[in-house]
């Protein structure tokens, strides 16, 4: 009896501990402030949803969520209830109409044992709902629980971006929607859609049908790592794909319903071989023929700054602006070698006639022309940081990708800037560890910790200049990402770190809490939603050598419910190896070494890479 009591007590205190250990209640991105209170609210199918805006997107989103989870979800307009009866128990209030201000996109949540109140307007209410969904525990039959708390929250940056390259590999409508779902859940609000590149043109343009008829197809694709392997192996498989304008509009609506703006990119004047394959007259050698590229890298074949090109680009951009209602149109501007322009009489004459300094001046002229047209339509351009070379177009926003240099220079010139430096862990095509077990990637090294540690405001900027850093973005270039499963592997969990970099105040950032408390919970949630992700190696496990006669191993899985398996016989660990359940102490005889290899398997069966701690007592 005593033992049973003790067990119950232990279980109970364990539960209390589980509840109280995380000051952020598992929420990603960490809110501005969370005050935890005792007790919980229970959502049952009878729980009422009471609101002054029944048709609002955020209200509908929440009601649909409840329906999906079998928790009721019918909405009642609070104005249909007599004033005296409006304060009800067992209700979730979504209050849009209240006195006073909240910061832009901000919200407040109050959870008591009797009701939940969400306060916010538009995006703010949408984000209140996203936060609430993250703290609803649905692992109970017929009801869900929400811990009592007061939460106040608003974003650090207005532009919180995630990019997807659909040119190198094409991703269909369903995947793009899943991507947008993820972004919305983690409060990212700008989807940078890289729609064209040397290897494929992926958006239907009615006036120029060959862009997709020819430009969306390549004969085959390079096998293996382009940079590390010039063996000229190709897969021999034709590759194609593009979005019709109807599909684009469908996705634009889908994003809009999730408070996500889409920034479409038509990459010019470099990265344009797919367009040249369709319309060679866009090049400086109109008689030449071009093939949609089958390899990666940077091509010397670029658009010619001719009137033919400007006319066609204006037409293309006009259709793009009809499809995408947002403020920003991304015109690329990156990696445009000047070889073709140097070899062209037309370009040389143009430089002389227009009093331009050189080919960089010509590139500036090119971008400036595009900007003028786009501004005349009431929109603004974004360009990669190369658009600084030769002089910046007057109203351009700069995306700083080659480190922060370009972003710093642009902000000092008074231009808006979006930070997305590869060197700051913002390139999700880079490797997530140095293990040879990582799947093929473009190189680089961007582990979760590095992405998390990135601060988009460089020290070099004073506080006035820093205001021009409107936000931050991570990029998913897809040269080596041919499938949705791999895209999700590269995206997750790093996108969760990006979300915190973009949203949370610097003072709320805490990597230990993020990694050990919130990542496990969120990854388990994402697994139950069917997402793929890179399973982090267990906390305490890494490839390393330790020396001495004795070594203690202490590990923690980083996905809730995951199990750790290990070997000490040199073999690869797996589900048939020894399960790790408690800290282990190893004694290594003098002159010997032993390898402690371990890996983690999630409840859904995903495996981490295996790591090897060499316990070395050879004295060498
Ligand atoms: C550079 S980032 C590029 C892309 C590649 C990427 C690979 C940028 C503006 N240009 O074309 O896909 O590196 O990491």
How would you describe the overall organization of this protein?
- 29% of the residues lie in helices and 21% in strands.
- It is of the alpha/beta class and 620 residues long.
- The strands form six sheets. The protein has an eight-stranded parallel barrel, surrounded by five helices. A seven-stranded mixed beta sheet has the order 1-7-5-6-4-2-3, covered by helices on one side. Strands 20-26-25-22-23 form a five-stranded mixed beta sheet, with no helix packed on it.
- Strand 8 (159-165), helix 4 (173-185) and strand 9 form a beta-alpha-beta unit.
- Helix 2 packs parallel to helix 3, helix 4 (173-185) packs parallel to helix 6 and helix 8 crosses helix 11 (359-376).
- The N and C termini lie far apart (55 Å).
- Mean pLDDT is 95; it is low at 4-18.
- The structure holds ligand TNX.
Topology:
Elements: H1 2-20, E1 33-43, E2 48-51, H2 57-68, E3 75-77, E4 91-95, E5 107-111, E6 115-120, H3 123-135, E7 144-153, E8 159-165, H4 173-185, E9 190-194, E10 196-197, E11 200-201, H5 210-213, E12 217-218, E13 239-240, H6 245-256, E14 261-268, H7 273-278, H8 307-323, E15 328-332, H9 339-342, H10 345-353, H11 359-376, E16 380-384, E17 397-400, H12 405-412, E18 417-419, H13 448-453, H14 463-466, E19 469-474, H15 484-491, H16 494-503, H17 511-528, E20 544-547, E21 550-553, E22 563-567, E23 578-580, E24 584-587, E25 593-601, E26 611-616
Parallel strand pairs: 2-3, 2-4, 4-6, 8-9, 8-19, 9-14, 14-15, 15-16, 16-17, 17-18, 18-19, 20-26
Antiparallel strand pairs: 1-7, 5-6, 5-7, 10-11, 12-13, 21-24, 22-23, 22-25, 25-26
Helix pairs in contact: 2-3, 4-6, 8-11
Ligand TNX is lined by residues 334-335, 384, 401, 427, 429, 442, 477, 479.
